[in-house]
Amino acid sequence: MPNPAHRIPLSVLELAPRSRGMSPADALAESTKLAQEVDRLGYHRLWVAEHHGSEAFMASATSLLLGHIAEHTGRIRLGSGGVMLPNHSPLMVAEYYGTLATLYGDRFDLGLGRAPGTDPMTAAALQRGSGQLDTFARDVLDLVGYLGDPDGERKVRALPGEGTKVPLWMLGSSTGGAQVAALLGLPFSFASHFAPQQMTEAIALYRERFQADADTAQVDRPTVMAGVNVLVAPTTEEAEFLFSTARLMAARIRTGQPAPLDPPVEDLGSVLPQGVLELTSGLHSFRAVGTPEEVVDRLEAIVAEHDLDELIITTYTYDPELRRRSFRLLADAWGLPESSA
C-alpha cells in the first residue's frame, strides 16, 4: 500500500444537495457545514457545480455560494466545478471570480464547462451561446484576457478581476473538453463520476495534444483530475445501503422525475424497474463504496490505472451527518495531513 505521504490530493465536488423534508435554506446551511468540515480535515479543494432548475441541487448561483463558503472557511481552495460558460458572458464571469479573488486572495479556481447544467427548456432560458467548441474556446480566451495583466489596449476591462489571474481548469465528459484543454494548455478535470464512458480516450487525447507553450498555458505538463462517487461507512453493508440514495437520484434524473434526495432503501429492485436499475448502475459505475480500507484500495486502483494527479469526490446521503462522516472516515484512511478524524 502506498505511503499516505505519497498519495495524491483529494478534493470535494459540492452541489448543495437537498433531501426530502429540507428547505433550500436547510440545504445551503448543510453545504456550509460540509465545507467547514472538509476544510478542517485537510481536503485540497471544494468546488461547486452549477445546476439550474433542480429540485435536488441548490447550486445555481455558484459565485454567491462560494463567497458565503469563503466567509466560513480559512484554508481550503474554493472554485467552480464548473461555471457553464455558455450560460454567461466571459466578462461577467471574470468580474464575479475576480471579485472573489480580490476579497479572499489566491484561494479560487475557475473550472469551465460547456454543458448547460439543466434541462433543455431551462437551458433555453439561460443560454447566451451554443457551447460549440470554437465559440467555447474563444470565450475561454476572452476570459484569460480579462483576468490577465492590463495590456493598455483592451477597451473592455474586468474591474475587479483584471490582474487576478484566477487559475483556470477545463472540465469535460467527452473528448471535446479534452481538445480545448490540450490546445490552451489548461489542467483537465474529467467528469467520470457521471459519464465515465470516454474517460480513457479523452485523457489520452489530452495528454497527446497538450501544448505547454500555448500563450494561455497554466501548467507545464498535462494535469488530470477525475471525479469519483464515494461513500464510506463502518461496514460494506451500510455503505451500499446508504448509496441507494445516490442510485435513486440517478434514476430520477434519467427518467425525468425531479425530486429532492430520497431516503435509502434495502432493495432497489423493489422500487425501480429492472431497466432503470441497470441504468443507475452504469451511471454510477465509477465509484468507491464500502469501508475505509475498501474505498482507499479502490481509489488507489483508479489513480494507478489512469495516472491521475488529483481526485475530486462527490458523496450523496439522505442524512447530511452521514455525508460528513463519510468524508471524515476517508480523510483518516487516506492520511490527509490535517485530518483529526
TrEMBL record:
Span of domain Luciferase-like: 20-303
Highest taxon in the source lineage: Bacteria
Pfam families reported for this sequence: Bac_luciferase
GO molecular function, one term: oxidoreductase activity, acting on paired donors, with incorporation or reduction of molecular oxygen
UniProt cross-references to InterPro entries, sorted A to Z: Bact_Lucif_Oxidored, CmoO-like, Luciferase-like_dom, Luciferase-like_sf
A GO cellular component annotation in the UniProt record: cytosol
Recorded family membership: To bacterial alkanal monooxygenase alpha and beta chains.
NCBIfam families found in the cross-reference section: oxido_grp_1 (TIGR03558)
Stated name of the protein: Luciferase family oxidoreductase group 1
Taxonomic path: Bacteria, Bacillati, Actinomycetota, Actinomycetes, Micrococcales
